[in-house]
Amino acid sequence: MFDTQDPPREMDIDRPCAARIYDAFLGGSHNFGVERGFVERVEETLPGITETYRENRAFIRRAVEYLLARGVRQFLDLGSGIPTIGHVHEVARRRTRHFRVLYVDNEPLTVAHSAPLLADEPRAEIIRADCRDPESVLRAPEAAELLDFGQPVGLLLSAVLHFVPDADDPSGLVRTYRAALPPGSHLVVSHVTGDRDTRAMGVLEDFYAETADPLRARPTSWIDGLFGDFELLPPGATYLSAWRPDPDQIVTSTRYPLLYGGVARKSG
Ligand SMILES: C[S@@+](CC[C@H](N)C(=O)[O-])C[C@H]1O[C@@H](n2cnc3c(N)ncnc32)[C@H](O)[C@@H]1O
């Protein structure tokens, strides 16, 4: 069980970590040899898996554009990773000058790499905190400075909860975050599942078992439960490639349907 007195996560550059693995899959430059080697081995075993990672980032873009169109102007992104290659503030600033993004990650080097990338963007900031400790996120001075909890917030929990073990009660955590959000807020979730491709999911879990961020797949029915009493917006929770695909997006399924999620709104 996560204890708020636990020391913060330490830097570990000997093992691949989730943020830099993801960056390497996206073709970014914030990763090391251990992550590039990991990506090569995974892609060799599951050819075409890179597309699944890119699908997650494309889902974030579509979800953030959708929230902006619905009037949401502030975003809290938990387990943000390195905010490059079309991340939340980059999507937001294409549409409006009036937005705020607070990125949160617990991996020290991810935060150290990300802070300079945001130095010229006063509307976005990253802090080092653990999403398993909602108090430390919601009470962070940066949250008070950047976000107005009297106005709707877009809360992103994208590809992060599968790094939170059952012992840390991920659904209870999401319940706490949902309760802290003002009415009109939106929850964006993506999570891995093996419901459709158990073999590929098992292979990926085995690969991640060697990393600093072991992951666990969960059933889609469990992921559905994360939205609680929020209203799921069309098309509901689904495999990500089928979530509001771009009009010119011909393929709405990927080779490895491992990512599932959706967007829901708090009423009021
Ligand atoms: C795969 S990346 C996802 C990045 C981004 N959310 C996205 O979907 O594009 C997962 C991120 O979650 C972070 N993470 C894992 N466990 C975390 C925790 N307990 N608290 C905060 N961040 C965490 C990792 O460091 C990593 O940067």
Automatic annotation (TrEMBL):
EC assignment: 2.1.1.-
Keyword Methyltransferase assigned: yes
InterPro entries in the cross-refs: SAM-dependent_MTases_sf (IPR029063), SAM_dep_MeTrfase_SAV2177_type (IPR006764)
GO molecular function, one term: methyltransferase activity
Domain of life where this protein originates: Bacteria
Root EC class: transferase
Endoplasmic reticulum found in the keyword field: no
Keywords associated with the record: Methyltransferase, Transferase
Biological process terms in GO annotation: methylation
Designated name of the protein: SAM-dependent methyltransferase
